[in-house]
Every structure is written in structure tokens, then in C-alpha cells.
Design brief:
The chain is built from eleven helices and eleven strands. With 326 residues, it is an alpha/beta fold. It binds adenosine-5'-triphosphate.
Length: 326
Amino acid sequence: MGKIKRIGVLTSGGDAPGMNAAIRAVTRTAIYNNLEVIGIRHGYSGLINANFKPMKAYSVSDTIQRGGTILKTARCMEFKTPEGRKTAYENLRAAEIDGVVVIGGDGTFNGARIFNEEWDIPFVGIPGTIDNDIYGTDYTIGYDTALNTVVQCVDKIRDTASAHNRMFFVEVMGAEAGHIALYSGIASGAEAIIIPELKGETDQLKALFEDGTKRKKSSNIIIVAEGDEEGGAMGLANRVKADFPDYDIRVSILGHLQRGGSPTAIDRVNASRLGNAAVEALLDGQKSVMVGLQNDEIVLVPFRKAVKLHKDVNRSLIDIIDILNV
Ligand code: ATP
């Protein structure tokens, strides 16, 4: 590949608040460096259908505070095929795009990694997913906003739980990981947190209820990660109800409201830094890497590692759940 003159940018997989701030940072850093920018709409589908639109500095005006993604996002099965990726390559070549910034989660990075094993147009990734489940970065864009949304919701649920002496099972997103559940549980003072990374919590729950009955707690909040193998909040609540019929138990599944809303300041700043770093990485000749944040510093992590290695939850938080609930 020769010198980079024109880059593309796309968002892929699940949407996350702060994606627009990242698109803005990519666009403006590119323009600052005299590059042309092409917005690719609807994720990898836009590569295959050549759904391209030139981006100017003003194209990203008034977007830093908006949730969703102005480029739209999609899940694209065709990109998983060699033929689909060949079409994508041909469209990129025809549009004279010399490098692409992809904003998404591990599926998006896996697609980019495979593409870069086959074709010579470099892809650089920005971690954009509310789940915070990407190895190699302390935070993904959208996680902080989703977390704050969950905490606001649980605070409201606590009010009604206390008023009625109820127990609530609140199911939160996070895909296969428990990052949102663990952090939101700590931040909202939950009595128990059920995450895929911890086993045998049903027994712990029983102990908690027996203890809670003794202490006459006026409310109990149990945060359940959607990825937990115990069957989600509904399944767990039904089992507990069977064992403790006297408890007034309710279930709240927060659902898609966790994805929306204006990004927090932290997400906007992270997105701005990572968007800037992704363009710098392309200009430095990088390919098949994710830009991440570790200890507040920008790092480059090969897609190979980001998608293969598992990011564990913060175990020190697990240790304090019970202590903070004495
Ligand atoms: P989120 O974490 O929010 O779900 P994600 O990026 O992991 O985001 P996915 O739906 O897993 O979301 O992946 C996004 C897109 O990446 C897929 O629709 C597909 O186009 C592409 N992709 C995923 N896995 C592969 C693969 N193995 N080969 C090629 N492309 C892939």
C-alpha cells in the first residue's frame, strides 16, 4: 500500500452511545491531516453494497452528544464469506479508499482481522460496545453511558422496592460478560450480583434471603447479567419464589433502553481520543490492530489478541460485594 490519502469509517454490530463522538474524531483528525473521509453506511453491508458518502468537517457537527450512530449499523452475514469480503475489497479499491476505521465489538474486529489476512487495505478498530468485553482495553465506548443508565434505573426501582418491601430481580445487558452487572450492582448498592463469571450463586442467594429475613430488610435488589447461565432474571426469580413463597418478588428486564441516550463525558472523551488515535495508527502504517486505553494511555492491540483473549471482570469488586452488604 502506498501513502494514505482517503480513509473510510464505519460502525458495526450493536450500537453504543459515543459512536458518533468516535466518528467525529476520526473525521476531523483525518481532515486535519489532509485526508479525505468516506462514511460507510450500515456497517459491513455498506462495504458490500458500496453505500458510501463523503464526510466533511460539518458532517459531524452537532453529533458528539447524540446516541446511536449517524452512519447506521448492521449485522452482515455476507461479510463472513470470502466472496462477500472480495466484493468489499473491490468496492474499496474502486472508491480509492486506502484504509478503514471500524467501530464495533469483537465480531466486528474478527471480520476486520480476517479481511486483513486476505486483502491489503489496512483496517484499524475502535472498541465500541456497551458490554466492555474486549480484551486489551480498560473501557469500550458506550460502557460508561450504559452503566450510568442502569444505575439511574435501579435507583428508581429501589424507591418502589422500599415502598412495598419488595425484592426485585433486575436483568441488565452485557452479552456473555458481567461487567455492566458487576459495576452497576456495586454502584447501586445491590444485595446480590449474578454474573456468568461466578458460579453457584443460587446457593449464595438462599443464604442472603435467610439473612435478609433476619435483618428485616425493606428491599432487596438482585442484579442479573443477561449472559448468566442461571436462566436470566425471570428464571432465577421463579426458582427463588418456589423456595421463599413469602417474599414479594418482581422482575424488571431493562432491555434496549440501556443502549440509547446521550453519551457521558467519559465516553465522549474516550471516543475522541480513540478516534484520533485510530487515524494516527493508519497514518503510521498500522493494520489489523485495535486502539485501546490501558491505564489512561492509548495502546495498540492486535485484533488477533483482542478477539481471542478473554477479558475478565474486576475480581477485586467481587470480593467486596458481601462486605458492603453486612
Ligand atoms: P456487539 O459486541 O455490540 O455485539 P459486535 O461487533 O461483536 O458488536 P457482531 O454482530 O458479533 O457484533 O459482529 C458484527 C459484524 O462483524 C457481523 O455482522 C459480521 O458482518 C462481522 N463478523 C463477525 N464475525 C465475523 C467473522 N468470523 N468473519 C467475518 N465477519 C465477521
